[in-house]
Design brief:
Distance between the termini: 60 Å
Number of domains: 2
Bound molecules: flavin-adenine dinucleotide
Helix content: 25-40%
Number of strands: 4
Structural class: alpha+beta
Radius of gyration: 22 Å
Length: 155
């Protein structure tokens, strides 16, 4: 510690961004002399309406040492496999954006590039057939991937 060391960090606003920043700073500025404070307003509400998140939140929580089971129980959370856009390009059109990877990359070539090449030469299923989260959600199924879980090649 020297005279230029940051001793106080004050976060104004206790919404999603404020509390996530406070959690990260408390974890990584835990040096014995920097104090992180958060000021909440009694008069101004938050936007937060119950957040749906995207996969990087798993890394954020792991970085903070938050146990996923405890997190889900405390927040009454559920798992999300992707986002479905209904009437997006045109009325009646549906697009499901799955989380996770499509298929396997091959020798540095991304799977979707291989898929597009194949599709230019023959009729192919929709690429979502190679996404485990797209297939699971279309079946109304969900399972937490294990540490060794890898997507499998399909013909
Ligand atoms: C209908 C709807 C659905 C949404 N769905 C999702 C979703 O599924 N997934 C997702 O990620 N996001 C979603 N969002 C967006 C998400 O809710 C916001 O982006 C997020 O909550 C914003 O967080 P924030 O911390 O920036 O703002 P806020 O949560 O609004 O927090 C701002 C904080 O600042 C405080 N504040 C403001 N002015 C002052 C002041 N002068 N002094 C002290 N405190 C002050 C307020 O009291 C508040 O606590 C949705 C939003 C809406 C409206």
């Amino acid at each position: 510690m020297n005279e230029h060391s940051i001793r106080n960090v004050v976060i104004v606003g206790g919404g999603t961004a404020g509390w996530m920043a406070a959690a990260a700073l408390s974890r990584y500025l835990d040096n014995g002399y920097t104090q992180t404070s958060l000021i909440e307003s009694e008069d101004i509400g938050t936007i937060g309406v119950g957040e749906a998140t995207i996969p990087p939140l798993v890394n954020f929580n792991a970085m903070l040492g938050i146990d996923e089971d405890e997190f889900l129980a405390a927040t009454k959370g559920t798992f999300k496999l992707g986002i479905e856009f209904v009437n997006w390009g045109q009325i009646g059109h549906r697009y499901f954006h799955p989380f996770g990877n499509y298929g396997h990359d091959l020798q540095g070539v991304h799977f979707h590039q291989l898929y597009l090449r194949e599709r230019s030469q023959r009729v192919m299923q929709d690429i979502s057939a190679w996404s485990i989260t797209a297939v699971a959600s279309s079946l109304g199924r969900c399972a937490r991937p294990g540490p060794e879980t890898r997507p499998r090649c399909r013909g």
